[in-house]
Amino acid sequence: MTLEDEFAERLARVCARFAAALDGKIGDSFAALETIAGCETIEIVIAAHRRLHEMCGIAATLDFAATGKAAGSAESVMCAPAKAKRALTPAEMATLESELEALRRAAAGDLAAYSNRDLFNRPA
Questions:
Q1: Tens digit of pLDDT for each residue in 54-81?
Q2: Is 60 exposed, middle or buried (0-12, 13-18, 19+ CB in 10 A)?
Q3: From 3.20.20.70, 2.40.110.20, 1.20.120.160, 1.20.58.760, which CATH number describes the 3-115 domain?
């Protein structure tokens, strides 16, 4: 097995783990949305922002482009409150909910495409 084959195999495992966990991560973000509403605990806001930030970077890296873009849009809503260590405003909450719905749709599309992908014979 060549180094390229080993890399492709490892990348395929990482993609499979990411794909398997994606619905749960989005579900966690929706659960956090309910907790964030009227939340006085800033740690929840910061953790939700971090989760979306990680999802954005990882998704884009693993060729889940729509998921990465949608996670980035949701993350941008959380950025100012997390940096300012404050709760979300009602307008930010509504926007975040809309962005999370868009993230769910994007992930569903990327997951469908992923299930049809051949990671070992992709064009370079």
A1: 999 999 999 999 999 999 999 999 999 9
A2: middle
A3: 1.20.120.160
